[in-house]
Amino acid sequence: MSRPRAKLTNNFPGCPVESTLSLLDGKWKGVILYHLITEGTLRFSELQRRLSSVTQRMLTKQLREMEEAGIVSRTVFPVVPPRVDYALTPLGRSLEPVMQALLQWGETHVACRDGKRVMVAPGETADAAAPARAASAA
User: Fold this and answer.
1) pLDDT over 90 (residue 117)
2) Beta carbons of 3 and 62 less than 8 angstroms apart
3) Could you give the maximum distance between any two Cα atoms of the chain, in Å?
4) What is the CB-side half-sphere exposure of residue 35 using CA atoms within 13 A?
5) I want to staple 77 with a disulfide (CB 3.0 to 4.6 A). Which of 4, 63, 83, 110 is the partner?
């Protein structure tokens, strides 16, 4: 079984793109970053509500990896029931321009209609792409 890219960070031949992608490698990390950038500090349960398709185990795993990488800070409050807050570190905040670029590209080139992703052709707008493609597929 191959090891995940995140575990191979010591074996990169000096490629900064691959090293950066290894920090963000994971289905939910980009979405977690997006919510922490746009909404600030969030409790674990708030993140879980925003990412309704993620399991508690996977969310915990992704957050721990991001904490280990220094992108996210975790604060535990000694109350009952336990309260855990997640926030971006300064290093995590430095990823904001990257996430904004991904958001802008997605708004320009990807449309989501009826739960399906539709790629937008050059010269087409995301709003016009989905109905036109849906009509041609029918």
Assistant:
1) no
2) no
3) 57
4) 18
5) 83
Q: What is the pLDDT of residue 12?
A: 59
Could you tell me how many helices (H) and strands (E) the chain has, helices first? 7, 5
Q: How many CB atoms lie within 10 A of CB 4?
A: 11
State the pLDDT at residue 84: 93
Helix (H, G, I), strand (E, B) or coil at 7: helix
Query: Omega before 81 cis (within 30°)?
Result: yes
DSSP 118: E
pLDDT at residue 1 in the model:
39
Q: Which three-class secondary structure state does DSSP give residue 111?
A: strand
75 burial type by CB count under 10 A (0-12 exposed, 13-18 middle, 19+ buried): exposed
Confidence band for 49, pLDDT divided at 50, 70 and 90 = very high
Q: Which amino acid is at 133?
A: R
Whole-number Å distance between alpha carbons of 21 and 124: 29
Both tokens assigned to 50: 């925003």
In the sheet that holds 42-43, the strands lie side by side as 42-43, 83-88, 72-77
Mean pLDDT for all residues in the chain: 82
